[in-house]
Amino acid sequence: MSTDAIAVVVVSYQSASTIEDCLRRLLRAKDVAQIRVIDNGSCDGTLELVQRLALADTRLRFIANPDNPGFAVACNQGAAASSAPWLAFVNPDLLVEPDTLLRLRDAARQLGTALVGADLHDESGVHDAAARRRDPDFVAMLRRPAARQLAIARDAAQPVQPVPAISGALLLLPRSLFAQVGGFDEGYRLHAEDLDLCRRVRAAGATVACVNAVDVLHLRGVSSRSNPLFVEWHKHRGLWRYFCKFDAPRHGLWARAAVFALIGTRFVLTALGKSIKP
User: Fold this and answer.
1) Which residue spans within 29-156 are E strands per DSSP?
2) Is there a single domain that holds both residue 68 and residue 198?
3) Which of 59, 118, 165, 265 makes a 20 to 30 Å CA pair with 256?
4) Which CATH number covers residue 22?
């Protein structure tokens, strides 16, 4: 297999509204040698759409999980079921152009060893703040509410902008780097696993960067609309896991308790807002 070859992993859940367009675009993308769809128990016709496309192109294969073991588990399944030297993780509500992935791959090569993402925007052209982020510092958030803003502004002078973290909606890295850091941490169910991966990539001496010169349409949150409270629960659970894993050992009991209260209160307020939303 060519050293340029890219394996794409798509984790789907109730993604029927976007998965076909996502996969057709990936099948047209340059240097994509393998596509692995890992479905986490969809019941909305997602698998039927994937099956039809898989019959027409042998590069596309799928694994149908009988339940939903989580995003991180499914990403690792897709990586293990493929062999191309480059790995791309692509959300099922993300629509790439034919040259998107090869441009990301070329940028990663220029950086040496790197994990890269793109500048993401929605249908209205609004850019995704998660495309470039700081590491969350929960103790700092207790002292300064401004620390809760993780987004980093796009630097127009840098076509490739090194940052601490990028969005898990679109990630590309060498398979060797993915193996070096041990893949995704399967202790996360939904959310924060991308922050975790970025932090471990940097700890391994590699670069994390957003390729500002590559814009990609991200329809956002299609899978999460079916059960928003479930998503919020696991999002906040993931934030607590991230804090315990990376930062809690540096702080005392009272600081840990305060962070727990901060994350718990944020979940309750978010959940109440979603439950009363008309």
Assistant:
1) 32-40, 60-65, 86-90, 94-95, 114-121
2) yes
3) 165
4) 3.90.550.10
Contact 246, 136 (CB under 8 A): no
Burial group, residue 4, by CB count within 10 angstroms (0-12, 13-18, 19+): middle
Q: Decide if 88 contacts 170 (C-beta within 8 A).
A: yes
Task: Give me the pLDDT at residue 256, please.
Answer: 86
pLDDT band at 1 (very low <50, low <70, confident <90, very high): confident
Q: Is residue 1 part of a domain?
A: no
Residue type, 142: L
Ranges of beta strands (E only) in the chain are: 6-12, 32-40, 60-65, 86-90, 94-95, 114-121, 160-162, 170-174, 207-218
Q: CA-to-CA distance for 167 and 152, rounded, in angstroms?
A: 12
Looking at the structure, tell me whether residues 250 and 270 fall in a common domain: yes
Decide which of 175, 200, 220 is a domain's last residue.
220
Return d(Cα 154, Cα 30) in angstroms, integer.
Answer: 27
pLDDT at 273 (0 to 100): 65
Q: Return the structure tokens found at 126.
A: 């609004």
Predicted confidence (pLDDT) per residue in 32-42, tens digit: 999 999 999 99
Q: How far is 170 from 88, CA to CA, in rounded Å?
A: 7
- Between CA 146 and CA 239 the distance in angstroms is 18
- Is the torsion defined by CA of 235, 236, 237, 242 positive or negative? positive
Per-residue pLDDT of 11-28, as tens digits, reads 999 999 999 999 999 999
